[in-house]
């Protein structure tokens, strides 16, 4: 294997929000069938430092500033191992991840990190994988990884494998993102949604809102997540009270976003949301880039 020259490289990625998320069923293997509009966002961000050690093979070390991550079993170590097994390319490197994207927030930070590393490995592999093979490999790491291999506004369906880029007119829309200090497990959220169906619970229409076509804002998981954490439903209402023309939860939570057509109003809303309970608040920002 050709050695890569020693050195240090810093990579960075933002996350995504689900403008809408609808659950359309469940496969026999337990995976849920979804339809969602993914929108890359510029903040918050994760930073991945790759130290290239030169001669030798294999991942030497992985460290992070996040206490939420298992240092031996995470999306980055999985990405390196799966790529090495698939291609035989396993440069000698160490990794340091500085987490800025909160875990358990529905923003896809772990998937974004894996996609960063896969992209770097592809770039330096003398025999890189084809796009389809890389996408399949990413899906084995996490359902959102294929999207982050080429993050742009996209309609995502199936279990994350069907990705259709879509044109989005968001140049005059300002987003404010609120990240409470609440960790929501996606596995738990989908399990609760399954259970709600067996209980014949009435559909909760109050969690859907519409901004302007095609910017529908709705999330099938809001009703079960808000039931467990009423604070999240309150934050959504506060965003609307602050002037958001639509607001919603991203992924399985716990982050919530508001969409504003006026920058000054968005800025005032961000300041107010930060002061309410010292939530992490990001924006106002224009979406569409990660």
Reported for the largest beta sheet, the result is: 8 strands, mixed
Percentage of residues in strands: 25-35%
Radius of gyration: 19 Å
Counted beta strands: 12
Number of domains: 2
The helix/strand series, from N terminus to C terminus, equals: EEEHEHHHEEEHEEHHEEHE
Which blocks of ≥5 consecutive residues have pLDDT under 50? 202-207
CA(first)-CA(last) distance: 32 Å
CATH topology of the largest domain: Ribosomal Protein S5, domain 2
CATH architecture group name of the largest domain: 2-Layer Sandwich
Can you identify the CATH class of the largest domain?
Alpha Beta
Number of helices: 8
Q: Fraction of residues in helices?
A: 25-40%
Residue-averaged pLDDT: 90
Briefly note the structural class of the backbone.
Answer: alpha+beta
Shape: globular
Question: Overview of this structure, please?
Answer:
There is one protein chain. With 290 residues, this protein is α+β, with helices and mostly antiparallel strands. The chain folds into 2 domains: 7-165, Ribosomal Protein S5, domain 2 (2-Layer Sandwich), CATH 3.30.230; 174-285, 2-Layer Sandwich (Alpha-Beta Plaits), CATH 3.30.70.890. It is 31% helix and 33% strand. It has 8 helices and 12 strands. It has helices spanning 75-87, 109-124, 131-141, 145-148, 186-198, 222-228, 230-241, 263-277, and strands spanning 7-26, 32-57, 59-64, 91-98, 154-158, 162-165, 174-179, 209-210, 216-219, 246-249, 256-260, 280-285. The strands form 2 sheets. Strands 1, 2, 3, 4, 5, 6, 8 and 9 form an 8-stranded mixed sheet that branches. A 4-stranded antiparallel sheet has the order 10-11-7-12, with helices on one face. Helix 6 (222-228) crosses helix 7.
């Amino acid at each position: 294997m050709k050695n890569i020259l020693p050195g240090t490289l810093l990579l960075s990625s933002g996350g995504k929000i689900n403008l809408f998320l609808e659950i359309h069923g469940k496969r026999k293997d337990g995976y849920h069938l979804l339809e969602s509009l993914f929108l890359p966002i510029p903040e918050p961000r994760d930073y991945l430092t790759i130290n290239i050690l030169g001669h030798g093979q294999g991942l030497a070390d992985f460290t992070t500033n996040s206490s939420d991550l298992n240092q031996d079993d995470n999306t980055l170590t999985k990405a390196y191992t799966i790529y090495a097994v698939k291609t035989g390319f396993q440069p000698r490197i160490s990794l340091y991840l500085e987490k800025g994207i909160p875990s358990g927030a529905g923003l896809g930070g772990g998937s974004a990190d894996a996609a960063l590393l896969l992209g770097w490995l592809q770039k330096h592999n003398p025999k890189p994988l084809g796009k389809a093979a890389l996408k399949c490999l990413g899906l084995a790491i996490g359902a959102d990884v294929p999207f982050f291999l080429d993050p742009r506004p996209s309609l995502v369906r199936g279990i994350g494998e069907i990705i259709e880029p879509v044109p989005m007119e968001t140049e005059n829309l300002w987003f404010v993102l609120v990240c409470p200090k609440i960790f929501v497990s996606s596995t738990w959220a989908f399990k609760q949604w399954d259970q709600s169906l067996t209980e014949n619970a009435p559909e909760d229409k109050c969690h859907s809102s519409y901004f302007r076509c095609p910017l529908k804002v709705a999330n099938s998981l809001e009703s079960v997540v808000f039931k467990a954490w009423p604070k999240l439903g309150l934050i959504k209402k506060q965003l609307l009270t602050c002037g958001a023309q639509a607001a919603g939860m991203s992924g399985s939570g716990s982050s919530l976003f508001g969409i504003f057509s006026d920058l000054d109003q968005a800025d005032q809303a961000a300041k107010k949301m930060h002061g309410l309970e010292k939530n992490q608040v990001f924006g106002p920002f224009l979406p569409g880039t990660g």
